[in-house]
Amino acid sequence: MKDEESGNRLGAYLRARRELVSPAQAGLPPGGNRRVPGLRREEVALLAGISPDYYLRLERGRDKNPSPQVLESLARVLRLDDIERTYLLGLAAARPRAPRRKRPEHVPARVHELLAHLQIPAFVEGRAFDVLAANSMAVALSPRLTPGQNRLRSLLLDPEEQAFHQDWAKATADFVAALRATIGDDTDDPRFVELVGELALSSRRFRTLWARHDVRSLDGGTTTVHHPVVGELRLHRDKLPVADVILVVYYPDKNSDSDEKLRLLAALTHGPEPAPEASPGAERRVPPGPEG
């Protein structure tokens, strides 16, 4: 993380990404005596159509103003997708700025009302995956969705949360990549600094994923989890921006096995629903007796 700490985020990203591209992926012979994973600097320069010296200056932070054309060429060589390419362009466009005063993340009152009315797991998260508010179904789905918890910390450090996810490796990779994308150029945000520092010290998995410099969007999707009471649940996830926070909802396919299990979880959480009462003044119908 030395390059990031010194402000050379562009160089750190380029180096991390070239180490993930094999010679075969780049159309190069593998060679017999490679001392570095992935591509060499001079190979990236050759494939991008720039001089090795210029590419070296980019990686070492000596040139922080590459042209869009150079960045597009590097994105092609490094096999970046649209999100990663946008992130690369953003790193080069970032300029030093005065520290901004951060407003505390606030959940509007109407969102608390909405959470109380939703019959599916729903909660509000902040930019660093802090749980800010949750309904009873979310907490019944996972106690780690209680307000005050951090979803990424739970995922990496809590054994129960690790067992909860069917594909823990993918979940951790997605969350860490989404965190890096969310941080963007807000590297001085105290909450991000605190969280990244804590996880870098306490989780080898986080250190490995953070060093890859993956960036990813974590919005809609489908996940499978193992609930300790109702068993396996296949749930869709949607994230909806509300003011400065994100409303997250989980829901199953209608009339699916997971739908039944989620209804069971709701019954265990809230108890059986009361029978509907007749409206005042409603006429009571009495079945007719036998004739005669």
Question: How would you characterize the overall build of this protein?
Answer:
It is a single chain. This protein is α+β, with helices and mostly antiparallel strands. The chain contains 14 helices and 5 strands. It has helices at residues 2-5, 9-18, 41-48, 52-59, 68-77, 82-93, 109-117, 136-141, 151-157, 159-164, 168-183, 190-202, 204-212, 257-270; strands at 122-125, 131-134, 221-227, 231-242, 245-251. A 5-stranded antiparallel beta sheet has the order 2-1-5-4-3. A hairpin with a 3-residue loop joins β3 and β4. The longest helix is centred in the middle third of the chain and has 16 residues, at 168-183. It is elongated and about 70 Å long. Residues 274-292 have low confidence and may be disordered.
Q: Nutshell version of this structure?
A:
This protein has 292 residues and is of the alpha+beta class. The chain has helices spanning 2-5, 9-18, 41-48, 52-59, 68-77, 82-93, 109-117, 136-141, 151-157, 159-164, 168-183, 190-202, 204-212, 257-270; strands at residues 122-125, 131-134, 221-227, 231-242, 245-251.
